[in-house]
Amino acid sequence: MSPALTRVLVVDDEANGAQAMALGLRVEGFEVDTAVDAEAALALMARATFDVVIADLMMPITNGIQLARLIRDKHPTSRVILMSAYHLSEPQLVRCDCGAVGFIPKPFNSSELARLLRIKLAAADALGSLCCRDDSGTPAAPWAAA
């Protein structure tokens, strides 16, 4: 998937961090919007389609895992990548059954984030999985090919 065609929504309760991340991704060729919480993210998603949502794991009220589940159910073509300063392993991500296609640890620079985003999107596209489930409904791990 070409980054110029990739529309990204960054969801982080730290507004300055979300804006900095958005700026870096725009420089890398992505089209980016931001939201400071799950409610704002879902409102944006009701009006526009996003290829990928990068959501902070630790947010007040609705955390990243809860948001990923809502997105999986309401917007199944949008891929979710969780981010956090707290580590979340791939087996933990599968067990949370939230539909996320990957995890990105903080801190990261814009170039590294763009590189990881391209890898995760390519892996999900290659496996034909948009919401991390196989034909039996079992959570799949599309990042495993990355």
Order of neighbouring strands in the sheet with most strands: 2-1-3-4-5
Roughly what fraction of the amino acids lie in strands?
A: 15-25%
Q: Please mark out the parts with pLDDT under 50 across 5 or more consecutive residues, or reply none.
A: 128-146
Shape: globular
How many structural domains? 1
Helical stretch tally: 5
N- to C-terminal distance: 14 Å
What value does the Rg take, in angstroms?
14 Å
Query: Any idea what the CATH architecture is?
Result: 3-Layer(aba) Sandwich
How can the largest sheet be summarized? Answer: 5 strands, parallel
Helix content: 25-40%
Please identify the top-level CATH class: Alpha Beta
* Structural class computed from helices and strand pairing: alpha/beta
Q: CATH superfamily name?
A: Response regulator
User: What is the CATH topology classification name?
Assistant: Rossmann fold
Q: How do the SSEs run, as a string of H and E?
A: EHEHEHEHEH
The overall pLDDT, averaged over residues, is 78
Q: What is the count of β-strands?
A: 5
Give your account of this protein's structure.
This protein is of the alpha/beta class and 146 residues long. The chain has one domain (3-145): Rossmann fold, CATH 3.40.50. It has helices spanning 15-27, 38-47, 64-74, 90-95, 110-127, and strands at residues 7-11, 31-35, 52-56, 79-84, 100-105. A 5-stranded parallel β-sheet has the order 2-1-3-4-5, with helices on both faces. Strand 4, helix 4 and strand 5 (100-105) form a beta-alpha-beta unit.
List the helices and strands and how they pair.
Blueprint: E1 7-11, H1 15-27, E2 31-35, H2 38-47, E3 52-56, H3 64-74, E4 79-84, H4 90-95, E5 100-105, H5 110-127
Parallel strand pairs: 1-2, 1-3, 3-4, 4-5
Helix pairs in contact: 1-5
